Amino acid sequence: MAPALGDTASNTEPSHSPDRSVTPVPVPPTGTLAEAGELLRALAAPVRIAIVLQLRSGERCVHELVEGLGVAQPLISQHLRVLKAARVVRGQRRGREVVYRLADDHLAHIVADAVAHVAEMEEDQRP
């Protein structure tokens, strides 16, 4: 069994050669790792990924996301609630509509990189 995060004691011998030096990488606090996991969970639905990709190019209201993604309005609204709760998107009321935008460009890069990675893997598997 692997040691838990933060455990320093180990009953097994190192699996690397003794002449190889490995510099330890600092591990963020457990709370930070847990929040990162929650963030990734919030991004784990295909419709939410598509919403983030749409918002990457600019703010959108719900009806624009419905038209752009071809998904029913109640489903878009449900996914936006999850993304808002995870602080991935922000909504701002403008008259009768709420306009949504990404809270942070880092998230768009994470999603775009994940999509690009999968596309590259699919290309590599083609005959």
Automatic annotation (TrEMBL):
Domain of life of the native organism: Bacteria
Keyword check for Hydrolase: no
Alphabetically ordered keywords of this record: DNA-binding, Transcription, Transcription regulation
NCBIfam families given in the database record: HTH_metalloreg (NF033788)
Region annotation Disordered: where it falls in the sequence: 1-30
Domain annotation HTH arsR-type: ranges: 28-122
CDD domains membership: HTH_ARSR
Stored SUPFAM superfamilies: Winged helix' DNA-binding domain
Protein name: ArsR/SmtB family transcription factor
Keyword Transcription: yes
InterPro entries: ArsR-like_HTH (IPR011991), HTH_ArsR_DNA-bd_dom (IPR001845), Metal_resp_trans_reg (IPR051011), WH-like_DNA-bd_sf (IPR036388), WH_DNA-bd_sf (IPR036390)
